Amino acid sequence: MYYKKKSKILFREYDTFGYITDNRNFGYKLLNNSENYIGDKILSKVGSYFISILDKKILSLNELTEKIRNKFPDIDSKILKQDAEEFYNKLVEEGFLVSGNSKEECNSRDTNFSYKNNKIEHIGSPNITSVSTNKSTQEFFEENLKGKPKLTNVHIEISSRCNERCIHCYIPHEQKINHIDPDLFNNIIEQCKNLNLLHITISGGEPMLHKEFYNFLKKCRESDFSVNILSNLTLLTDEIIEEMKLNPLLGVQTSLYSMNSEIHDYITQTEGSFEKTKNSILKLIKNDIPLQISCPIIKQNKDCYNDVVNWANNQGVYAGDDYIIIARYNHTTQNLNCRLSIKEIEDIIIEKSIKDTNYISNIKAEAEQNTNYNPDDYVCSVCESTLCIADNGNVYPCAGWQDYVVGNMRQNTLNEIWEKSEKVKYLRNLRKKDFPKCLKCPDKEYCTMCMVRNANEHPAGDPLVVNEYFCDIAKLNKKMALK
Length: 483
Known about the structure:
Blueprint (H helix, E strand, L loop, with lengths): L1 E4 L3 E5 L4 E5 L17 E4 L1 H8 L6 E2 H11 L5 H18 L2 E4 L2 H6 L28 H8 L8 E5 L24 H13 L4 E5 L9 H10 L3 E5 L7 H8 L4 E6 L5 H8 L4 H14 L4 E6 L8 H11 L2 E5 L19 H14 L3 H11 L16 E4 L4 E3 L10 E2 L5 H7 L1 H8 L6 H5 L10 H7 L10 H15 L1
Parallel strand pairs: 7-8, 7-13, 8-9, 9-10, 10-11, 11-12
Antiparallel strand pairs: 1-5, 1-6, 2-3, 3-4, 13-14, 14-15
């Protein structure tokens, strides 16, 4: 019998345990939500070794047993083989591995994402005592690291330059001037490997403006990272597509604002951008590269954003639409001229609830989950699992919060910033109780707290001053849910 770790599975080995998971925490969801997620599993040190020797290879049970025997020479070979077979078969049953009577059969069972046959993959009957699809990656680490924050995701902005000038963008256009130094990028990736990170997001500006973009993707793939790329896709090439296809843990997100080219090009302030982005989306679909379309709803496209959603649906792609627009990180607010009024958002919610009978039910369900509002809960994931690194080496809590520098990669290591930065510690120690107004709010179950929304819109960048606009949205959601 031959065994292989599935291509969409991530494995990391830590001091006292191993961790194996599918890409569900970092990949984009499918249009029909038929993705059969496998879940997460904590492994013992011995189990971690059994998985580590598989790597990305296809090996026979005899080959695996021989490798294990080198590690445990004092144990009888028959017992080792029996234990190994039992262990690997269990992981096949749970969906983390595939097996076959030949290398060819084994490889054929490692199916990758495809738009052509978007079907539920049979993975056997998971053992609910050891596999869970309910816990997030972060919850697993919190349990096994006794609450110590674990950095799992890094967002790297490889270029602040952009070939578009989107009217709602939170990045001031005058700041779009630099590329990351390749040595700095490679050093960051090496540090991420040493820290056993799972996921890398690559963005800009427009990341494909960087002449080393192809090599950066290759570096991430060879380092076995899950990768998300945020791009307008106007510079997509066949060479880049071929590299994307080599990483089964890679996904792409792009923005499409309208199926009317004049409206899309007006929002991007770039003539011809609609056709380039649309055609590149079709190329990614043709090449079975996981894709998600983002369609922010602003004043300029509020009457036609649904055209994008419908077009994406016809292509088999999920399109997310959202009316949340934040101010620029230098606290200028001209871009908020595009933001919908509360009345316009109410009209959008009514429209959505008519077209989707589950829309209001989903709002209610989310509010129900928030009823157990604990004052000692974290505000969000910044400095708990994620950091953002800009092209100049500055480190931020998240991509939108770039006037709050918590460190610089040219002066300190990523681990030093994560463990020792006073600004990181400050944000990490904030809890919901530090927002007393929110604790008393009768609409709090219908609100998602976000410090960057507060900070960017506040003249002095204070994340603790609650933004009333989003309070009004929470109030509106509650009214619509109860109506």
